[in-house]
Amino acid sequence: MSTHAAIAANASRAVPGYLVSAIAMTPAAGLPALQPRSAADPLAALGHAKVYDRDMTVFSEGDAAGSVFRVQSGMVRLHKMLPDGRRQIIGFLHAGDMMGLAFAAQYLYTAEAVTATTIQRIPRLELDALLDAQPALARKLLSATTSELLAAQDQMVLLGRKTAAEKVASFLLRLCDRKGGDRPIDLPMGRSDIADHLGLTTETVSRTFTKLKSARLIRILVGGKLELLDHDALADLAGGF
Predict the structure, then answer these.
(1) What is the DSSP string of 102-123?
(2) Cβ neighbourhood burial of 55 (10 Å; 0-12, 13-18, 19+)
(3) Tally of CB atoms within 10 A around 106
(4) 122-138 residue pLDDT tens
(5) pTM score > 0.90 for this model?
(6) CB atoms within 10 A of CB 161
(7) Directed axis angle between helix 164-179 and helix 231-238, to 10°?
(8) Best label site of 46, 71, 73, 227, fewest CB within 10 Å?
(9) Under 8 Å CB-to-CB from 232, ≥6 apart: which residues?
(10) Are 87 and 79 in contact (CB under 8 A)?
């Protein structure tokens, strides 16, 4: 079994397959994300990069999974179609995140660009060879997938147990954590995308944003940005207190 396959097998024991296949490797795992062509980036020489326009499909559920992908700039949404025809957005990926890491013959979800997005496509065989040659990199990748399993488990709790306000607060706090501080967060996705991610209706998401704004917990800015005005209060709300 290749190193890549072993990493994917470790992930598959904890969460459903469609969440495993969406596991992302974040910049925090130790791999530079914002400078993908630097000499310090061991993945830089693999595959090739392509710019995807807004709403353009990167790959579709059921396609042969011959490559993994890394977001270099922009944002990607991952979604799966449910048996009743509804769309469930698994997550939103940012610069440095990877998708398609699970060892499967086919992609179990669809990936689409939310904004104009640059994505590096890495043939799976090239990644396997690199991981076999660099055990330290494989360990970092395994550490990243373990961290993302916890995020996937949090998402399952988010969908099943929380109220609309708790879901939206949790979502905003997660984006803030990814941003790395109290700076305004980017919300390039539409309200319908957020609704399909949180298991809500678009109308409920809009009403919840209005309530949070009226309570002076958030400020909606121009250009698809949002500022968290009371992080502690949002954290209490997200926790159900």
Answers:
(1) S--SB-SSEEEESSSEEEEEEE
(2) exposed
(3) 13
(4) 999 998 898 888 888 88
(5) no
(6) 10
(7) 130
(8) 227
(9) none
(10) yes
